[in-house]
Amino acid sequence: MSAKPSPERPLSPFMIGPYYRPQLTSMLSILHRITGVINTVGAFLLSGWLLSIASGPAAYDAFMGHASAWYGLFFLFGWTWTVAYHLCNGVRHLYWDTGRGFDLDTVYKTGYAVIAGSVVLTVLVWIVVLI
Amino acid sequence: MSLRSPLSRARGLGASKQGTHHWYVQRISAVAMLPLMLWLIFAIAGLAGSDHGAVAEWVASPVNTTLLVILVATMFYHALLGTQVVIEDYLHHEGAKMAVLIATRFALIVGGVIGVVAVLKTSFGA
Q1: ipTM for the complex shown
Q2: B41 in contact with A at a CB cutoff of 8 Å?
Q3: What is the count of residue pairs from A and B with beta carbons less than 8 Å apart?
């Protein structure tokens, strides 16, 4: 590997698009990172929520006021999916760590399973929220 | 017994300055978080609409306190390992990379400690 990337040889993931046709596998791969970063933001918000509980009813109500506003609900719903996706695709990664599941057919099957699993998990969580 | 070649030993560690430890603890923390996160998202979903008293009581139950402390610590550790790799992959200027790595670590440690202290304070009172 050379010290400096040249414009002719862009580094991953910046080659996706102009130089490299996106497929399900590469998209799911970069999504694992993106959802991981979003979940990190979510971790700080979880600490904020726990802090508001420790600080008393006024702080808790203020926190929940933001959480139940449109932007709060938008983030919470999105966060549910990013957690669900990262969790499901994490299981896929752990399966890969055993050295299995790398043939093209299986990679696509587990990829679709991860998408379906993340959606099902998200819907189940919000059913629990709403009942 | 080491499987490293004499040349690789003489040149020191690779580009990441360390071996498989990072990879291994990332996986271990992931395995730990699987049941913990499933528990957390459904538990929080079940708390929707509860007032402060009910939520504080839920946090203060011994089982929930234990699980929350383990979960928050594991979550921030896992996030620290993950963001480290992202930063190392996309930031190539050594100085900027080091600065962002340190700042991210500090922020994650503060965030994790706040979460753990908040759980313990709710559990054990003011």
Answers
A1: 0.88
A2: yes
A3: 94
